[in-house]
Specification:
The chain has 409 residues and is mainly β. It has helices at 2-28, 82-86, 148-155; strands at residues 52-54, 57-62, 114-128, 131-139, 143-147, 158-168, 172-189, 199-221, 224-249, 252-278, 284-311, 317-345, 352-366, 371-380, 383-392, 395-408. The strands form three sheets. The protein has a ten-stranded antiparallel β-barrel with strand order 3-6-7-8-9-10-11-12-13-16. The longest helix is centred in the first third of the chain and has 27 residues, at 2-28. The chain is elongated, with a radius of gyration of 44 Å.
Length: 409
C-alpha cells in the first residue's frame, strides 16, 4: 500500500513539472494583438535553452542575449507596428563626394551651385539693307558704276566669339554672356593718266556686339531638359560703306566719292529659352534655342558725297553734299539655333561637358522713320562726275552656324 502511494506521488510530481515547463514556453512565445502585425517570416523554432533557430537554417541558433552585452537583446519575435511592416524605412542615399562639396539636399550628391561655361565660335554671312552708295564717272554718260549694296552682301564674312560664364543651382542660375563680330572688306581697281579705263576703291565695315546679364531656370520633362532665361542686354552695331571712282578722259581728271553709315546703341531686355532632347541611350542630344531682345537707344544715319572735275584748258568744277540724322527708338533682335550636342558626365566635377554645333540665324531691325541721303554732281559738258548715298535705320540678317564647347549643370 505504501509503495503504491509513493508511486502515485512521484507520477504526479513528474506531470506537474512537465506542465510548468510547457506553461513557461507558452509565456515566452510572442503575442499578436491583430493579424496586421503578423510576420510569418520571423517565426522560428524556440528551443528549451532559450535560443531561436533561423527558419532558413534549422541547425543554426541565435543567442537570446548577445555576448559581451549588459542589455538584453531585442526579442526577434517581438511584434512590429503595421506602418513598419507595410512601409519599411528607406535610408537616404549618400555620396562620399558630399563630404567636400556643399549639397543642396542632405544626403544628395548634387552641389548647391555649380559653375557653367561656354566658349563658342560663330560664323555668319550677312545680308545688309537700308544702306547704299553709288559713284560714277565718265564722258558722255556714266562709266564704271559701283553698287555697294551688292558688294557688301557678297564679300563680307563674319567670324566672332561668344562666351558665357555663370553659376547654376538645381533650379535657378545666374550668368553673363558676350558676343562680338567684326570684319571689313575692300576692293580696288587701278587707273592711270594714259588710260581711259576708270579705277575705283571700295571699303565695307561691320561691327556688332551684345553683353547680357540674366537669370535662368532649369527643369526636365521625360527625355527633355529645358532652360528659360531673362535679363538685360546692351547692344551696339555700326555699318559703314565708302567708294571712290577715278577716271582720266578727254583731258579731264574725274573723281567722285560716296560714303554712308548706319549705327545703333541701346540697352533693353532679353528673354527666351533653350532645350535638349536625348537620342535614346546615346550621348548625343538635339539642341534648340530661341532668344528675343528689345533695346531702346539711338539710331544714326550718315551720308556724304563729293565730286570734282579738273581740266587744264577749262575751269574746274567740284561739289560736295552731306546729311546726318539721328532718332531715339528701338531695335528688335531675334535669334534661333538648332543642332546636335554631345555630352559626357564628369567624374571629377558634378557637371557635364559638351560639344555643340548648330545652325544659327539672327535678325536685327531698328524702328523706322530715319533717313539720310546726299547727292553730288559735277558736270562740264560732255564730262560728268556723280555720287549719291543714302542710309536709313539699321536692318540686316545673319545666316550661319556655330561650334562650341563648355560645361553645363
Amino acid at each position: 500500500m505504501i509503495r503504491k502511494r509513493l508511486f502515485v506521488v512521484a507520477a504526479m510530481a513528474v506531470v506537474t513539472g512537465l506542465s510548468c515547463q510547457a506553461f513557461a514556453q507558452t509565456a515566452a512565445m510572442p503575442q499578436w494583438d491583430s493579424l496586421s502585425t503578423f510576420d510569418a517570416s520571423r517565426i522560428g523554432t524556440y528551443s528549451m535553452t532559450g535560443q531561436a533557430s533561423d527558419p532558413a537554417d534549422p541547425d543554426s541558433t541565435i543567442p537570446a542575449v548577445p555576448p559581451n552585452s549588459s542589455q538584453p537583446a531585442a526579442n526577434p519575435f517581438a511584434p512590429r507596428p503595421a506602418s513598419e511592416v507595410f512601409n519599411p524605412p528607406v535610408s537616404a542615399p549618400t555620396c562620399p563626394s558630399c563630404n567636400s562639396l556643399p549639397c543642396a539636399v542632405p544626403g544628395s550628391c548634387a552641389p548647391a551651385w555649380s559653375p557653367i561655361a561656354l566658349a563658342e565660335s560663330t560664323f555668319f554671312w550677312p545680308t545688309l539693307a537700308h544702306g547704299n552708295s553709288f559713284v560714277g564717272t565718265g564722258s558722255s554718260g556714266l562709266n564704271g558704276p559701283l553698287d555697294q549694296t551688292l558688294a557688301q552682301s557678297n564679300n563680307l564674312f563674319l567670324a566672332g566669339p561668344r562666351i558665357m560664364f555663370g553659376r547654376q543651382g538645381q533650379t535657378w542660375g545666374v550668368l553673363g554672356r558676350f558676343w562680338y563680330a567684326s570684319n571689313w572688306g575692300s576692293g580696288f581697281g587701278p587707273t592711270d593718266a594714259g588710260s581711259e579705263t576708270g579705277g575705283f576703291s571700295a571699303y565695307n565695315a561691320f561691327q556688332a556686339y551684345t553683353a547680357d546679364l540674366e537669370m535662368q531656370r532649369r527643369w526636365s520633362r521625360g527625355l527633355w531638359n529645358f532652360w528659360g532665361f531673362g535679363g538685360i542686354r546692351y547692344g551696339s552695331v555700326a555699318i559703314g560703306h565708302r567708294e571712290t571712282a577715278n577716271q582720266f578722259a578727254d583731258g579731264y581728271a574725274i573723281s567722285s566719292t560716296a560714303y554712308s553709315a548706319q549705327s545703333f546703341q541701346g540697352t533693353g531686355i532679353t528673354f527666351g529659352g533653350y532645350s535638349t532632347r536625348a537620342l535614346g541611350n546615346s550621348p548625343f542630344k538635339l539642341f534648340f534655342s530661341n532668344r528675343y531682345s528689345i533695346l531702346w537707344g539711338t539710331s544714326h544715319a550718315d551720308a556724304q558725297v563729293a565730286t570734282s572735275l579738273v581740266c587744264t584748258t577749262m575751269p574746274s568744277a567740284w561739289d560736295a553734299n552731306g546729311m546726318s540724322a539721328s532718332r531715339t527708338g528701338d531695335l528688335f533682335i531675334a535669334e534661333f539655333q538648332a543642332g546636335t550636342q554631345w555630352e559626357r558626365q564628369l567624374v571629377w566635377f558634378p557637371g557635364r561637358a559638351f560639344l555643340r554645333t548648330a545652325f544659327e540665324y539672327q535678325y536685327w531691325g531698328a524702328g523706322g522713320g530715319l533717313c539720310a541721303s546726299a547727292e553730288s554732281t559735277s558736270h562740264i559738258s560732255p564730262v560728268v562726275s556723280t555720287a549719291c548715298s543714302y542710309a536709313e535705320q539699321v536692318m540686316f540678317n545673319l545666316v550661319g552656324f556655330n561650334i562650341g564647347a563648355g560645361i553645363i549643370y
